[in-house]
Specification:
14% of the residues lie in helices and 38% in strands. It is mainly β and 476 residues long. The strands form four sheets. It has a 19-stranded parallel beta sheet that branches. A six-stranded parallel beta sheet has the order 20-22-24-26-28-30, with no helix packed on it. The chain has a four-stranded parallel beta sheet with strand order 5-10-13-16. It starts with a helix and ends with a helix. The N terminus is likely disordered. Pfam families: Glyco_hydro_28 (PF00295).
Amino acid sequence: MESDKATFVALVQGICTRPSWPLLLLLFTFLTLLSLQLPSSSVFPVWFLSASLPSPHPPTCSGFFRDVPPRKVVMSIADFGGVGDGKTSNTASFRKAIRYMQRFQNRGGSQLNIPSGTWLTGSFNLTSNFTLFLHRGAVILASQDPKEWPIIEPLPSYGRGRERLGGRHISLIHGNGLSNVVITGQNGTVDGQGKIWWELWWNRTLEHTRGHLLELMNSDNVLISNLTFRNSPFWTIHPVYCSNVLIKGMTILAPLNAPNTDGIDPDSSTNVCIEDNYIESGDDLVAIKSGWDQYGITMARPSTNIIVRRVSGTTPTCSGVGIGSEMSGGISNIKIENLHVWDSAAGVRIKSDKGRGGYITNVSISDIRMERVKIPIRFSRGSNDHPDDGWDPQAVPRFKDILFSNVVSVNSTKAPVLEGIEGSSFEGLCFKNITLLGVALSPTWHCEYVSGFATEVLPVPCHELQNNTDSSWCSR
């Protein structure tokens, strides 16, 4: 073992001074073989997982957002009586500002600047052809008075509030039926002060479903970038029934025990680019959704053409990227790549159940790095989570052409857990070049009601994934 360590040091020194792909390949092979000799508690060097040759032109999907011209009218929240002392309520000022700027929707557009300071406010709606710009040092601070988060109708693809029957609290920043909306700045902050909402949830005294920090509905051509969102009461950023959405360069933070504080949840939306974001959350970093049971099936608004790229972060209870469990309208054409997750319950998780119906198809998940993730890859079922008694137990989802490739995980607790659904169909499930090092408790894959193909996978996958007739999707 001492000679192994000496060889390892020599390899590292050679790579650091003369980087080359053959040496990187040799080092990866050496580490893989060495891992078989190390106890499962050994910690592999995290820097190795992060080491890559930077691309001068990293791929981007930012073209989903169509550039907008400079806004004709630019004003400050202070022009509408706003006071940035962190104590004075600015709810009336924000709502007055938006009402004024609505008149420029078709006259060159408008921009509302938020200067440095702390601007306390209840919820407010946006308008079309509009930019909300937070200067450096600016904080939009959410009111802790639930009355300043009015109750609105439930989403038609959910049929009720996600947590409670009936309506739901509006998001802090909200919009419906908008186009050409930009929410950006110089790393200003939107703080939802979610603790009072989390306590209502913990204490089981919540009357209506909590509001998001930002929700846009039925909107097109949206840019959300270069800001910090923190302490959302519920899911943080929720584009629903939207198209051409770019969410880029965001920092999203919540305490790791804060309930249901998902980072970014594209829902029944098309052409969504989620790129270069850092997220710490008490739930999924990114969750792709499309409606809930019979309501989602009836509305049939799928999530499609969604790219999640260069997202990093941690969530102790959930996953780096989740697909579902609300997926009843269908989910297709999803690309997830260059994901970095640590100290989390799962890396990538596909969640569904009887009653959901719908489909998940044409999903590519590649170049995933994980450290200390309990279950790196997971398919789960059995949430027993339905909106009401009208769900159909015969409505089972369909899964087709799901590819995992180039995945490395260090110090996981378990090998992948793939729990399919009895009566549902899996076609084209493929695993290529998957390396799970230092699996502590269970190196054996757990598979139920799934089938597919696997190649270059360590530890050896379950027999359900050794069906060579199912390899056409892999070869593409």
